[in-house]
Every structure is written in structure tokens, then in C-alpha cells.
């Protein structure tokens, strides 16, 4: 029997399901809403696909997804990046498999149609049978719009969407700051690991700017670090903040002193990096370089969330890929210094593994929490997800709106963008 509340909730429009301070539980559980998201969000706005270091040379490619659609990110012979739908124009087979690699062309394994690196159809076996009826110029791989900022490649199916730089807006400044983790070297994706969790993609999206959970969920991580680091990470009552940067993007500043990694380099080197600093000195690096590299190794003191699918945090990018309404794949890509000292890059890898790794002290605890959110959402479907923390203290800023570090401002920002796109 349908309860009175159920009936009332079924009548809610998509727009009604996102309020200023809460969202409806159906956003985590309704398969029809998920289908609409794939169309109105993932096929309609800019979606992050790769870092330029993942396709370093002509012919380098990476396979990924935009929503559920497989795409190839590839660099052509003139060094131009393309994002191509991974679907043969004959009878739809994927033309490229494998996560990453290098190739001269894409040859469909089914009947052998071949495409050049920019997606153009180059040749088909036994063309005489088509009796000149094949419009080769119109049967290239579908090519998406692709634009880059700060080494980050984004693509979209929407030919009419605003330029990427306008979409990113104030988030650009934070991307520039984040890339200072190169410590004077270009940033390089050194590898990634993937996992799936049984939960909706937005549960993960919310987590990147959620300081509130940190001391509780990450108790075991906090007990595994030195005293100085533990104190540094005690930021929930600190002077940090979270800011809505527009278009669904947000930043959570946890450690204000580590916003600009090149500022105040005379500050004492933390005890945990003393051995690394000594190793870099022993390699003959001048003192100012040692300080810059050590600072960069420690990572940025903020998390940046770019709607809808990429987070920049500590030493890594976290990319989310929706699989179904109740399943999400996460890619954790670790970033290192391209050409930087081996000791520094090793330290970054160890730091990344310590928190995000499959055997790490951070992400396994996070994913347990996300799974529980999904499990709980299966009950009480007329209830709402509360996102009103820090709302009263929110203030206008030059770039948007901000509140204290543990406010749910970042989540409110993401859901307002969700509402805008879903009701467009
Ligand atoms: S499906 Fe690709 S050549 Fe036939
Ligand atoms: Fe967490």
C-alpha cells in the first residue's frame, strides 16, 4: 500500500528534489533519475578525461568513459589531443581496448575498418563491394569537443557548452595552486588503482569537501601518523573554510598555510621530512630547491572538487565513474614530479599508499561509510538527506560563497549545479 508521504514524494519534480538545505533520498536510489543524469549531466557538460601526462607522445592513448560511454583520449601526429567515441562506425564494435598504450591507428577487430589517430576513416577491407556508396568522410569516429586547462583535459558531447575556462571560473586559480605539487617540475600521473563501491556516484562527490567526517572515519589513519601530522590534520575546528566556486565546483581549505606551496618556504621543515631533505641535500640540490621539493611532496592543504567527476586532493586525482544508480568506480591516480628526484617521488607514492592505497588507512574507511549511506538510503524513501551544516554562517565571497571548513557548502554547490543541469 502506498503511504500518503510516498504519493506526495512521487509528485515531486526533479527540481523539487533539491532544496537549499537538503536533497531527496531518491537522488541516490531512483534508476530513472540515474538515466537522466547520464544524459543531462554526463553528456551535456564538461567531463574530465585525462591529464596531459597520460598521453605524452604522438600515438599515446588512454581509454576511459564519459558517463557510460567509452571514449579514447589520444594524441595525434601533430601533438593535438582528441577524444573519440570508442565505437566503430560500421557495426559499433569498440576499436581500442586496454587502459593505455601507443598505436599508429585504430583498426576495428571485427571487419577491419581502420581509423587514423584523429578518428578519420582511413580504409575498409574489400571496398569494391560498396560500389562507391561509402561516404568515408562522414564515417570517422565521433569526435568530441576537447579543451585543456593546467594540463587537465576535459571533453564534452555538447557542441554548444560554454568554453572550458568559463565553466571552470574561479576553480582555475585552485588548479594552478594544486599543480605546484610538481615542486618546479611538471606534474605527472605515475599510475592509478581502481575499485568499485556499491553506492551512488554523488555519495563520493560529496565526500571530497566533507571535513566533518575526517576525525571520526579516519581515526585509524590519525593513529598511524606522527604527533605533528596529527595536530596538522586537526582542522575541523581550525581556520580553514569551504567555498562554493560556482558551476558545482568547490574547494575545502583544511590547512591554510599549505594553500600556496611556494609561499613561506623558510618555515621549519616538518620532522617527518627531515630524512628526505637530507637525502636531497646529499644529492647536491641547493637549499631553496630542497625546501620547495619537500613542501611539494607533502601535498596541498586543500581539496578541490570539479563537477561532476574529478577531485584534486593531497597527492592524487580521484576520478569517479558512474556504473549504475547503486554502483560507482573510483580511479585514484597518483601524481609525481616528472623528472624530479627519485627520493621525492618515492615519498609521494608512500604517502599516497598510506591513505588511498588498497591497504591504506583512509579510503577503505571512507568506502565503508559510502556503502552504509547507500544501504540506509534503501529504507525511508520519503526521507531527505540533510545538507544544512554551516548554512547559517555562509557569507558571500569574491568567487562565490564560503563557510567554516566543516560546512556542507561544497555539497550544496554541487546539488545546485545538478538541479540546473537536470532541469534545463
Ligand atoms: S564493426 Fe567495425 S569493422 Fe565491422
Ligand atoms: Fe574521508
The first-level CATH class of the largest domain is given as Alpha Beta
> What are the bound molecules?
FE2/S2 (inorganic) cluster, fe (ii) ion
CATH homologous superfamily identity of the largest domain: Naphthalene 1,2-dioxygenase Alpha Subunit, Chain A, domain 1
- Proportion of β residues? 25-35%
- What is the overall shape? globular
Count of distinct structural domains: 2
The largest sheet is: 9 strands, antiparallel
CATH topology of the largest domain: Naphthalene 1,2-dioxygenase Alpha Subunit, Chain A, domain 1
| Rg result | 23 Å
The side-by-side strand order for the widest beta sheet comes to 12-18-17-16-15-14-13-21-20
**Distinct helical segment count:** 14
CA distance, first residue to last residue: 34 Å
Low-confidence stretches: 1-5
Structural class: alpha+beta
CATH architecture group name of the largest domain: Alpha-Beta Complex
Helix content: 25-40%
| Strands, total number | 21
Q: What number is the mean pLDDT?
A: 95
Amino acid at each position: 500500500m502506498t503511504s500518503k508521504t510516498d504519493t506526495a514524494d512521487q509528485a515531486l519534480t526533479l527540481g523539487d528534489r533539491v532544496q537549499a538545505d537538503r536533497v531527496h533520498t531518491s537522488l541516490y536510489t531512483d534508476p530513472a533519475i540515474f538515466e537522466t543524469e547520464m544524459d543531462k549531466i554526463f553528456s551535456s557538460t564538461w567531463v574530465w578525461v585525462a591529464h596531459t601526462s597520460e598521453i605524452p607522445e604522438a600515438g599515446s592513448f588512454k581509454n576511459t568513459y564519459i558517463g557510460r560511454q567509452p571514449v579514447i583520449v589520444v594524441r595525434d601526429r601533430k601533438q593535438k589531443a582528441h577524444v573519440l567515441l570508442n565505437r566503430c562506425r560500421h557495426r559499433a564494435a569498440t576499436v581500442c581496448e586496454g587502459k593505455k598504450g601507443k598505436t599508429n591507428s585504430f583498426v576495428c577487430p571485427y571487419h577491419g575498418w581502420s581509423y587514423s589517430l584523429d578518428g578519420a576513416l582511413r580504409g575498409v577491407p574489400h571496398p569494391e563491394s560498396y560500389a562507391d556508396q561509402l561516404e568515408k568522410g562522414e564515417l570517422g569516429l565521433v569526435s568530441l569537443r576537447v579543451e585543456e586547462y593546467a594540463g587537465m583535459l576535459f571533453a564534452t558531447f555538447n557542441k554548444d557548452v560554454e568554453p572550458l575556462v568559463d565553466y571552470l571560473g574561479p576553480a582555475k586559480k585552485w588548479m594552478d595552486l594544486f599543480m605546484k605539487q610538481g615542486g618546479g617540475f611538471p606534474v605527472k600521473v605515475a599510475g592509478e588503482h581502481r575499485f568499485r563501491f556499491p553506492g551512488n556516484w554523488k555519495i563520493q562527490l560529496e565526500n571530497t569537501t566533507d571535513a566533518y567526517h575526517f576525525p571520526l572515519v579516519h581515526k585509524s589513519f590519525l593513529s598511524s601518523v606522527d604527533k605533528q601530522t596529527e595536530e596538522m590534520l586537526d582542522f575541523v575546528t581550525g581556520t580553514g573554510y569551504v567555498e562554493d566556486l560556482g558551476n558545482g565546483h568547490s574547494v575545502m581549505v583544511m590547512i591554510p598555510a599549505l594553500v600556496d606551496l611556494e609561499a613561506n618556504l623558510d618555515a621549519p621543515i616538518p620532522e617527518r621530512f627531515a630524512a628526505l631533505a637530507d637525502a636531497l641535500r646529499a644529492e647536491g640540490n641547493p637549499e631553496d630547491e630542497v625546501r620547495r621539493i619537500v613542501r611539494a611532496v607533502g601535498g596541498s592543504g586543500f581539496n578541490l572538487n570539479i563537477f561532476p567527476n574529478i577531485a584534486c586532493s593531497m597527492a592524487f586525482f580521484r576520478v569517479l565513474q558512474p556504473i549504475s544508480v547503486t554502483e560507482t568506480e573510483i580511479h585514484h591516480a597518483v601524481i609525481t614530479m616528472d623528472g624530479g628526484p627519485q627520493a621525492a617521488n618515492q615519498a609521494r607514492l608512500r604517502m599516497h599508499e598510506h591513505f588511498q592505497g588498497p591497504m591504506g588507512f583512509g579510503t577503505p574507511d571512507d568506502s565503508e561509510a559510502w556503502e552504509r549511506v547507500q544501504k540506509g538510503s534503501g529504507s525511508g524513501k520519503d526521507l531527505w538527506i540533510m545538507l544544512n551544516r554551516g548554512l547559517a554562517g555562509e557569507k558571500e565571497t569574491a568567487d562565490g560563497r564560503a563557510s567554516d571548513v566543516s560546512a556542507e557548502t561544497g555539497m550544496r554547490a554541487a546539488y545546485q549545479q545538478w538541479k540546473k543541469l537536470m532541469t534545463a
